[in-house]
Amino acid sequence: NAGVMQNPRHLVRRRGQEARLRCSPMKGHSHVYWYRQLPEEGLKFMVYLQKENIIDESGMPKERFSAEFPKEGPSILRIQQVVRGDSAAYFCASAPSGTGSAEQYFGPGTRLTVT
Amino acid sequence: GEDVEQSLFLSVREGDSSVINCTYTDSSSTYLYWYKQEPGAGLQLLTYIFSNMDMKQDQRLTVLLNKKDKHLSLRIADTQTGDSAIYFCAERSGNTGKLIFGQGTTLQVKP
To answer: Which residue, among A96, A75, A41, A80, has the nearest Cα to B100 in the 3D structure?
Structure first.
């Protein structure tokens, strides 16, 4: 049973470029959470999605960030016009259901570096 | 508001017990978690406890929850060098299951 997969593991972008981060949840899981970890800090919630729906985006910056979880394929976190402050590790976690399951399993993360 | 606090650093000798502490503010939290993060890696779910429990034991790990004081602890018995990592406490918040994390405790195990 494959765990949560994220790619790429490392991503380097110049200021102003776009970053696309992908997350494939565990088999049978239809709920995805995205978190951001700035250097030397804990993880901060960004967004919670179910298939084709954004349920809670209270942690998403208002501009340049968007997320989707289509019916087919991975969840995508998209950052437009990246700035140096976007450099961080981005983790996704999956769960079989949202409020009905206690466990969230994390992927290995994508480490974004903006130069 | 939601906030989770942890001490930043703990150093122990191999074979000793480690106790990592955490306080949280959301009294409506249903679950509380401990995750382990090794350098450059993702988060590994170690254990979690339902809010109506006081204690949970799983092999070398013991979780204690004092709901009145909103205090959570993780005890690692017979700490090994492989336990060196950052340990994150988290509470589950609100209706959507999102997790609120502390800033992490770096555990250093000396041989």
So the answer is: A41
